[in-house]
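User: Just a sanity check before I run the rest of the batch. Below are the structure tokens for the first item. I only need the designed sequence back.
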């Protein structure tokens, strides 16, 4: 089982290597891949050092599966080349998510859609993944009519430069800016680039990807995405209007029994999800479950998850695990 990790020296690529090791993924050969400027560098995996190779070298090595986290342009250019060589690509960029010929997969929700013919598989956006792990059980059991989403997103979703910007601002030092404004002691209502409709690309991802993954374009969705000076994970306030009546107790029990979800919801003991506790974990944490008294069949949820793990690396590895389990690689 040959595994290529494309973008192995980047923030998400490093977490992918960590997750592969932690979950004892059954690989026999690791191929770390990065851009030409990183070729020859070393990365560590399970106590051993591996030399980074370039993209064409990796294609020629014919891995069984390639986990991509190297940006949309790299994926558009190189994922088809890997696929043509017989490698199954699981891509973490936005390049293929809305391509109607590509599957957009959250394993807890729709892994069963995958077949051996799927040679390029899209990993959803981090904020979409954690939200839908929590909301998909509600869609199955009650139907979802409308979502009002506000996200409070970690700077790690922007990358290393953003983390360095925050550290510089903590220290009172000048440095490269990932954002147009300071992020320390601030909140930026600006995740990704603005679109002509006034929403950011991140906000529209929540709309479009939700429709595709849940297979229901009739769900009405509006979103506001905010960047905050937090490292541990993304937080989301989600107001969900259901089609069928239910209760807070039933929702709490349903989520408690749902794979990948941990319910942390006890106001009496101040128990609720927070990114400081989600960091480094693979679960999606849900709390502050309560009825919206302004409207029938409507509830509020607070959803938190580590965006580098379940929102990116872990979800990618889980897709690969499913392909291995079902014998869908190398056919």
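Assistant: Here's the designed sequence for the first item:
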């Amino acid at each position: 089982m040959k595994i290529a990790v494309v973008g192995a020296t980047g923030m998400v690529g490093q977490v992918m290597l960590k997750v592969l090791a932690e979950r004892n993924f059954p690989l026999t050969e690791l191929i770390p891949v990065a851009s030409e400027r990183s070729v020859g560098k070393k990365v560590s995996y399970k106590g051993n050092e591996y030399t980074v190779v370039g993209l064409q070298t990796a294609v020629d090595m014919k891995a069984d599966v390639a986990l991509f986290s190297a940006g949309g342009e790299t994926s558009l250019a190189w994922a088809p080349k890997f696929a043509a060589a017989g490698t199954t690509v699981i891509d973490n960029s936005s390049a293929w998510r809305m391509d109607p010929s590509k599957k957009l997969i959250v394993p807890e929700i729709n892994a069963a859609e995958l077949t051996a013919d799927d040679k390029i598989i899209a990993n959803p956006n981090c904020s979409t993944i954690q939200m839908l792990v929590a909301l998909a059980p509600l869609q199955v059991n009650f139907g979802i009519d409308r979502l009002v989403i506000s996200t409070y997103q970690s700077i790690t979703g922007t990358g290393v430069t953003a983390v360095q910007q925050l550290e510089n601002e903590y220290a009172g030092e000048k440095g490269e800016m990932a954002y147009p404004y300071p992020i320390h002691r601030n909140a930026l209502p600006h995740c990704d680039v603005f679109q002509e409709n006034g929403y950011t690309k991140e906000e529209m991802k929540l709309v479009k990807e939700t429709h595709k993954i849940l297979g229901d374009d009739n769900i009405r969705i509006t979103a506001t995405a905010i960047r905050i000076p937090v490292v541990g994970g993304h937080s989301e306030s989600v107001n969900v209007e259901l089609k069928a009546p239910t209760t807070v107790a039933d929702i709490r029990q349903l989520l408690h029994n749902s794979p990948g979800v941990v319910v942390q919801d006890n106001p009496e003991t101040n128990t609720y999800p927070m990114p400081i506790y989600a960091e480094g974990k693979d679960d999606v944490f849900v709390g502050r479950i309560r009825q919206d008294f302004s409207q029938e069949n409507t509830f509020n949820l607070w959803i938190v998850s580590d965006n580098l793990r379940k929102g990116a690396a872990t979800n990618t590895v889980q897709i690969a695990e499913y392909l291995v389990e079902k014998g869908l690689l190398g056919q």
